[in-house]
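Hey Z.,

So I finally got round to the adenosine-5-diphosphoribose thing we talked about over coffee. Here's the setup:
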Amino acid sequence: MSRIEIMQGDITKIAVDAIVNAANETLLGGAGVDGAIQRAAGPQLLNECRGLGGCPTGDAKITQGYHLPARHVIHTVGPVWRDGKHQEHNLLQSCYRRSLEVAQANHLKTIAFPCISTGAYRFPKDQAARIAVATVSKCLKQIPEIEKVIFVCFDIKDFKLYEELLLLSEKSTVE
Ligand code: APR
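And the result:
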């Protein structure tokens, strides 16, 4: 039974232990999925974020989920895409790894990710999807306590990218 799932939809509607937010280093909200999560969670989320003192790119911090169906939000800050020669790949990998480490440290079992950095931060979608699937697959081998990771793709393009990658990775593990 695979511990990785994909779905197309709105991450603010998903009832898991934690949804991951694609935030910025201030953690004080924004547009995109960050704006959607802040709106759905209600004003207490921003209040808690204010006390966190920001978050460096590639790292992750946890808050309560408040009015979200998810119990927690893990805020991570993806890299802004420049040219692929400024550690963008390593920093995006770090977002997925640190988010899973924070989930493990808080004894969470189910976590949902958006497509970090692929909106306003302009990370190429295909490269970001490959990094997401490869990093999560690798980390899950080291963190057996996490039972389920769901990639929540807002648009069909991302969904199809992840679907293809997961089919390939399942095929390779079977062969
Ligand atoms: N549910 C799931 N995914 C969503 C949702 C949603 N409700 N809304 C947007 N997305 C998807 C976008 O389609 C994109 O694939 O989230 C992905 C990430 O896009 P952004 O939200 O723009 O995040 P990012 O590219 O990491 O840029 C972060 O944008 O909103 C600001 O404060 C944020 O400065 C930060 C920057």
